[in-house]
Fold each of these.
Amino acid sequence: MGKPPRQAVILAGGLGTRLGALTRETPKPLLPVAGKPFLDYLLWNLKRHGFERVLFLLGYKAMRIIEHYGSGAGHGLADDAQRNTRLEVEYAVETEPMGTGGALRLAKDYLDERFLLLNGDTLFDFNYLDLALLEGPAAVALRRVPDTARYGRVRLEGNRIIGFGEKEGKGPGLINGGVHVLSRPAVELLPEGVSSLERDLFPRLVERGELLGKPYEGFFLDIGLPEAYTEAQKALPAWRKKPAVFLDRDGVLNHDEGYTHRPEQWRWTEGAVEAVKWLNDRGYLVLVITNQAGIARGYYTEEHFLQFTAWIHEQLRLAGAHLEATYYCPYHPQGLGPYRRDSEDRKPNPGMFLRAIADWQPDLSRSLAIGDKESDLQAAQAVGVRALRFAGGNLLRFVQDALSESGR
Ligand SMILES: [Mg+2]
């Protein structure tokens, strides 16, 4: 199975001519939406899926984007502080317009073996890691529209695309949603010079039977037209306010065998991986909130805990699922050295919930917390989040029942 990609490549070199005066000084992806650049929303979405590196393919007004994001260290992402994650930013700049295919080919030495490719002026939100589960040199996220005539129809047989960009025929159908998982061998098929992914690469891959596709139903917004850009001012902040599911770790995600801290001790609860993916597929933020007194007691170090947490996150990514973040409390009143203290973070205190809420700003009215102990429930209830006790069994079924009850 192909490894889930860590690199996202963003096409951000277009002229944005349809937006007229708006893009005279500012490249389209940098236009402000509710007070921050459109690209910030895109980067936030990539980070929460666990992407670590972004490569911008630039042309028009490239310096504006480079000056804004620099090496990616915090800038423009400051209000989305995500501890333990980073986003490195790189740039490839064309000196003359090369088209989407030409720009990608020009940057081929900077590409990972597999990467996510997306447009810098559209946001299509779905579980990107699910698309990465498709095996093959190239996979396209598809979107269902009432009339394909304007875009070019995509025909699908199973997961294989058998027709791409067909202009004939009207009515409902599938189109390219502008998010792709590509591999370097696919990029090698592009001709030298100016080329287009839509005209020169995807049809070629279809001929070879190598273009895969899957339809998704997530939030979609293209700021390329003036009315859509106006709509974005309200629609994007509303989209960004996602419901969250806060999960305790030991006894919820895994069988609690006491101070679990090594892969060989880890046993997933039945349905746990599926539960996380089910939530990812439906647009929930999934945040782990865990007391880690084992650090205070000296059973393992904080460094070791972070490495182990990265391993857990990676196991989920391999299954097409992801955790937005893991919050932990290393303190305990009977701990050792600097870890010996009362902490606002240690459940039943709500400190970790407060930090997670500040970082992610979820819609609490649609959020849910799941724990196996009374202290988990108390911490969640202290911040006004509905909390349920999980007493074992299948976590997927538990989550499905809990969220259908709430009328979703
Ligand atoms: Mg527990």
Amino acid sequence: MLKRTGIPTDDDLEKVIPDEKRLAQGPVVIIECFQKIPCDPCAISCKLGAIKPFKDINDLPIVDFDKCTGCGTCISSCPGLAIFVIDENYSDEKSLIKLPHEMLPLPEKGEDVYALDRDGSILGKAKVVRVLKIKNKTNIISLEVPKSTAMKVRSIKVEGRK
Ligand code: SF4
Ligand code: SF4
């Protein structure tokens, strides 16, 4: 499934999602990188050592969730747009997702956008709460989503744009 469609299965995701206890503690990274390719900027970008140093350039990232603060620095370093930060503690009803976004023009803070599943299907509307523009790297959008969709929303579409 993953090789054919590029969409991870529940089994794939189970290997990269922190356990309920860690999720309940606040912001934490989720790295949905499953293909062994020569690429390692994520591990280099994390100054807290939460992404273990690669022994080989083709290694897959391994996260020490106890070291991760959910800062999001690694998100903009990833050319595969495979890194997200989830904060399940954001509010009683909503989770916060930080996700990479390369399309222009960028949405604005406070704007409602379409929240998309991994396959590009629309899950609903969600509010942009922060837009972090990063020179020469991927921008980061922070999005409020219902808790029930926090493990599904992985990109956005700005209304009125393709
Ligand atoms: S979110 Fe921050 S602390 Fe966590 S892995 Fe990424 S860079 Fe490291
Ligand atoms: S930078 Fe992104 S694509 Fe490259 S190994 Fe890390 S997570 Fe995978």
